[in-house]
Design a protein that fits this description.
The protein has about 250 residues and is of the alpha/beta class. The protein contains 9 helices and 10 strands.
Length: about 250
């Protein structure tokens, strides 16, 4: 177990009205799992991901990273926690437009690691692994396709060997071909031992997980376990997950 919540609540004020997005949620995220969070729009998926990752502070309750209650951290402590333990991939690809592909990844690495020939080599190897060849390294984000930008974003997210990788609709703005390429990368890094928590509304994306939890009104109302992607029959895998979603009224 790498993360867990106890009685987690997140409430927002909206025009004087209290909106309870997450309600007394107890949840465990296991190490090396590929956990997928699903649910209808407004169910609290992204809010939960932000709370788990220290990007947001709970209204009540606790988030534990191992034995440490990070919900008691100050903003500065949370920034250090995220930098040292987390990687992030979002639907919007936040690459620095005035930096090349290579420098975007190096900038992320240098926040934690010292510049060295070994680090440069690590960046080179990871970029090549996700299909970003040397001919692209000196290009700028506006010269790349959306799929290429997202692959660079994934390398930047994993360059510091995070304990856990968080992804919020990482294929939401990509076409089908680019989505498949990005999902293959997520599958590969999970099979290499990376813990992943991903929010998605897409069945094809969710099929890559090993555990799917379904939220409604800020509470987990359903869960489905799957073996690692590629080790079972894809038809049976799809039918099993579809059965959960049908029961949830998805």
């Amino acid at each position: 177990m790498i993360l867990r919540t106890e009685k987690l609540c997140r409430t927002f004020s909206n025009g004087g009205t209290q909106q309870h997005v997450i309600k007394n949620l107890d949840l465990e995220i296991r190490e090396k799992d590929f956990t997928v969070i699903m649910g209808a729009s407004g169910s609290g998926k992204s809010t939960l991901l932000y709370a788990l990752s220290g990007m947001d502070t709970p209204t009540l309750g606790s988030v534990y990273f191992g034995d440490t209650d990070i919900s008691k951290y100050t903003n500065d402590q949370l920034a250090v926690f995220r930098r040292e333990n987390c990687g992030f991939v979002f639907q919007s690809i936040y690459l620095l437009e005035n930096m090349t592909v290579f420098d975007n990844v190096m900038t992320g690495a240098l926040v934690v690691q010292k510049n060295s020939p070994a680090l440069v080599r690590k960046v080179e190897v990871l970029l090549k692994k996700v299909g970003i060849g040397e001919e692209i390294w000196n290009k700028y984000p506006n010269q790349l396709s959306g799929g290429e930008c997202q692959r660079v974003g994934i390398v930047r997210a994993i360059i510091n060997d995070p304990k856990i990788l968080f992804a919020d609709e990482p294929t939401g703005s990509l076409n089908s071909s680019s989505s498949n390429d990005v999902l293959d990368i997520f599958t590969q890094i999970h099979q290499n031992g990376q813990a992943i928590v991903m929010v998605t509304h897409d069945l094809k994306t969710a099929l890559r997980g090993t555990r799917v939890i379904y939220l409604r009104d800020g509470a987990v109302i359903g869960e489905h376990q799957m073996p690692p992607y590629g080790t079972d029959d894809i038809k049976e895998r799809r039918e099993g997950l579809q059965d959960l979603l049908d029961r949830m009224g998805w």
